[in-house]
């Protein structure tokens, strides 16, 4: 069955985050050796911010509770960056969590930025911070949270 698998041909053309479900499917179907799939997942995760997931896979692959020091350092960097982005986006996140304030946004969107700036001191910098925070959430594997912020 593995001879008919197109994953190696299409995976290089996909976003890394789209390849994970494919690898999960292959692992579930047991078309390849489980260790080979886990190694492919770790290799794929190396260029993402999904450090906790990579650590879990590493533990599973090597049957240990220890993880390489570079993974621990990378996790600290990712958490620090996430905290700084969260702080920068906090005013807009607080606004979005207030249903009555969100209700004030006009359907025509013409005066929204002006209203946000006048009433809530939210400007382009906070909007950009929210975008960066949502993008980072996506890169960490929090797809639904990223979608909510981008919406």
UniProtKB/TrEMBL annotation:
- Species assigned in the record: Stylosanthes scabra
Please give the superkingdom of this protein's source: Eukaryota
Q: What Pfam family is a match for this entry?
A: eIF3_N
Name the record gives this protein: Eukaryotic translation initiation factor 3 subunit E
User: Which gene underlies this protein?
Assistant: TIF3E1_2
Q: What is the lineage of its organism?
A: Eukaryota, Viridiplantae, Streptophyta, Embryophyta, Tracheophyta
Assigned keywords, A-Z: Cytoplasm, Initiation factor, Protein biosynthesis
GO MF annotation, one = translation initiation factor activity
The chain positions of domain Eukaryotic translation initiation factor 3 subunit E N-terminal read 5-137
């Amino acid at each position: 069955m593995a001879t008919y698998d197109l994953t190696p041909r299409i995976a290089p053309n996909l976003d890394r985050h789209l390849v994970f479900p494919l690898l999960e499917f292959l692992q579930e179907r047991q078309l390849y050796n489980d260790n080979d799939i886990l190694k492919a997942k770790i290799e794929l995760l190396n260029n993402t911010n999904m450090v906790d997931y990579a650590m879990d896979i590493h533990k599973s692959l090597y049957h240990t509770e220890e993880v390489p020091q570079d993974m621990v350092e990378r996790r600290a960097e990712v958490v620090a960056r996430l905290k700084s982005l969260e702080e920068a986006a906090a005013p807009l996140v607080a606004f979005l969590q207030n249903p009555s304030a969100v209700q004030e946004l006009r359907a025509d969107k013409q005066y929204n930025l002006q209203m946000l700036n006048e009433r809530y001191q939210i400007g382009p910098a906070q909007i950009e911070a929210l975008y960066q925070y949502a993008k980072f959430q996506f890169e960490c594997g929090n797809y639904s949270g990223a979608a909510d912020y981008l919406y």
